[in-house]
Amino acid sequence: MPYHRDMTREGSGDAARPADDEESGSRAERKERTRRAILDAALALAADSNLMAISLRQVAKQVGVVPTAFYRHFGSLELLGLALVDESFRSLRLMLLDVWRHAPEYTDFIDGSLPIVAQHVRENRSHYQFIARERTAGPPRVREAIGHEIELITRELATDIARSGAAEQYSSADIGLLADLIVSFVVTMAERLVEDPDGEARTLEQARTQLRMLLVGALNWRSRGTWAT
To answer: Rounded to two decimals, what is the model's pTM?
Structure first.
């Protein structure tokens, strides 16, 4: 008999496990859907102002959850903002680095990258709007996070420039300055595309000319100590 009772308990546990796994999976899916809804609601509510102008209760009401449910996903609006920064920059960094690393010549970089950036802005407009607003008017930690992400992109580009043949004429400091110039230019162009989506063709044409001017100067630059004697 004792042996029989043990087998019953084992059998019951094994039979219940798939149901437990299914319930756990559905809970995880519901949690992710709610988290996604909160992020989307925050983007929508901040579209005409900024993150500091909206409240936790507004976001919760938009999603259709109680404020306590918000805290199960994000401890504060600032933490929600940090999640949006991470999400906004993740695909942007990968896209830019892929373009830069597959452009063997500067002209390929210019002609190849600008249309891709424009397409990325069109497909992720709400995220670019968020970055453009929050990097100057957002909560301090959010502004700091945006600055950090832009700095990461700049360092990654500087590393790629250093590995290229063009690096011979630049000092390490000047490579960093060149990368900073290019990234700042791309960020400004993206902000213009967000502000004036109907003027995309004009913005791209102006950006192409400006970037060529920048890179012509870069190609003829020699850092101190690299001049031929």
So the answer is: 0.77
